[in-house]
Amino acid sequence: MAIKLHDTLSRKDKRLNPRSGKKIEIFVCGPTVYDYSHIGHARTYIAFDAFVKYLKSQSYEVRYVQNITDLDDKIIARAGELGQSAETLAQNFEKEYYHDMETLGVDSVDKYARATDYIPQIISQVQRLIDKGYAYEIEKDGIYFDISKFKNYGKLSGRTSEQAEDAVSRIDESVKKRNKGDFAIWKISKPGEPKWKSPWGEGRPGWHIEDTAITETEFGAQYDIHGGARDLLFPHHESEIALMEALSRKSPLVNYWTHTGFLTVHGEKMSKSLGNFITIHEFLKMHAKETLRLFVLSSHYRSPIDYSEQAVSQADTNVKRLAEFYNKVGKLAQETPSARGIKNEGTNSKFRSFWQELARDFNTPKALAVVFQLIRNGNSRISENKLTPKEAGQILNFLDEVNKLFGIIPDTETTSVPEDIAALASEREKLRKEEKWKEADKIRAAIEKMGYIIEDTSRGPEIKK
Ligand code: AMP
């Protein structure tokens, strides 16, 4: 099934066409680790997590890299307020971030790349930009990128270099800049700030170049998809294009720019600076992780989502409906254990419309509508005693596939696996390691007869009732 993806740069839905066969390289801007992450961050990271899992379900080999901004002005300012070193502060909140992502089931990122682990690569990029005439030095201040030298500056955001001064966030100020929109790629450190040796004096990287140094190292000069929330479009992503395309003289930096809409509160972006945020940790004290995931995926990734207690409680109710239906169908399917073995053949199954919606610029709300329609029909057929165990098995398989991408069905029936089943499963695992597939399959069939199924996941085999 052809997949279409909206590209912010061309402002078009484009057919997904990876640079190299079925391989997709994707980079998403990670957090600046100076505080706890809030559910606005979760909005963006859950959306990309589900998207990457979807691509994998379509047999793409995805390599997903996210940066960790563990050094920048915000971190230094916060550390100063708390009387801590910037390094300690960043390390603590980086750990908190991983913990939050783990509890949310965001586990598709292949590599978290810490900016401070790429200082030599950043210095090399700064030097090459100076050599090519794109960057200049302001003494005792730093090295700046000259946006007037890059003629396409503004192509992503639709802003011209003259308008660059309108940028709202993280602007590098210096009266000696050639153009108002020029941005620092290397900053001479002030006393007490973290610093690294460089040909221009002891300093630290500017923000935008952290990401291009990481992506050049991890992927090369060009790759497939770059993502983040809308606020990063300008100046951050605009500047990444300028830096990397100036360095490599290759265009485009990426084939698809994907931007998530904001999580808002009364129409205003949820953010640390506005103080209108709910941390992921606080949210999870009151709701299941599945609620947050369903809440996020019930809107299209590019649309804003306005947070309200009512909307979250609707997501809570829907998660319960999903779980109840899953369990009901599960019980029915158990009557014919072999039904669980029936493959839905993904996109060719009768659940095709779910996959079709995802293929249309990852339209999760419409795909979820297919799932909830299935629940309505399924429930009425169950109450009329018309749903056969075979159909129940198919539905169950489908819901498992949905859950692998979306993570919205809670595991309410925690089954303790009897000893004899566990022993058979480990015997099967041993045979699989010896590549004795036939014998292993026989054991699997025996286990199924006893009312359990084995799923081979990336974490190893999982046994379910
Ligand atoms: P930051 O830690 O501010 O650098 O943000 C990390 C990531 O979360 C970036 O991709 C942001 O654009 C995104 N983000 C921050 N706030 C929100 C929000 N309210 N809604 C959606 N995404 C957000």
Structure description:
This protein has 465 residues and is of the alpha/beta class. The chain folds into 3 domains: 4-260, Rossmann fold; 281-406, Isoleucyl-tRNA Synthetase, Domain 1 (Orthogonal Bundle); 419-464. It has helices spanning 39-57, 73-82, 86-103, 119-131, 207-218, 233-248, 280-286, 289-297, 309-334, 352-359, 364-383, 389-406, 419-433, 437-449; strands at 4-7, 12-15, 23-28, 61-68, 111-114, 135-138, 142-145, 183-188, 203-205, 223-229, 254-260, 263-265, 268-269, 305-307, 453-457, 460-464. The strands form 5 sheets. A 5-stranded parallel β-sheet has the order 5-4-3-10-11, sandwiched between helices. Strand 1 and strand 2 (12-15) form a beta hairpin. It is elongated, with a radius of gyration of 25 Å. The structure holds adenosine monophosphate. Adenosine monophosphate is lined by residues 29, 31-32, 40-41, 43-44, 228-229, 231-232, 260, 262-263, 269-271.
Q: What's the oligomerization state?
A: single chain
**Can you count the beta strands?**
16
| Shape estimate | elongated
Q: Span from first to last CA? A: 33 Å
Domain count: 3
* Number of helices in the DSSP assignment: 14
The CATH C-level name of the largest domain is Alpha Beta
Rounded average pLDDT = 92
Q: Assign a percent range to the helix content.
A: 40-55%
Helices and strands, in order, run as: EEEHEHHEHEEEEHEHEEEHHEHHHHHHEE
Largest sheet: 5 strands, parallel
Strand content: 15-25%
Main sheet strand line-up: 5-4-3-10-11
CATH fold call of the largest domain: Rossmann fold
Which small compounds were modeled alongside the protein? Answer: adenosine monophosphate
**Strand pairing plus helix content: what structural class?**
alpha/beta
Radius of gyration: 25 Å
The CATH homologous superfamily of the largest domain = HUPs
In CATH, the architecture of the largest domain is 3-Layer(aba) Sandwich
Low-confidence segments, given as residue ranges, are: none
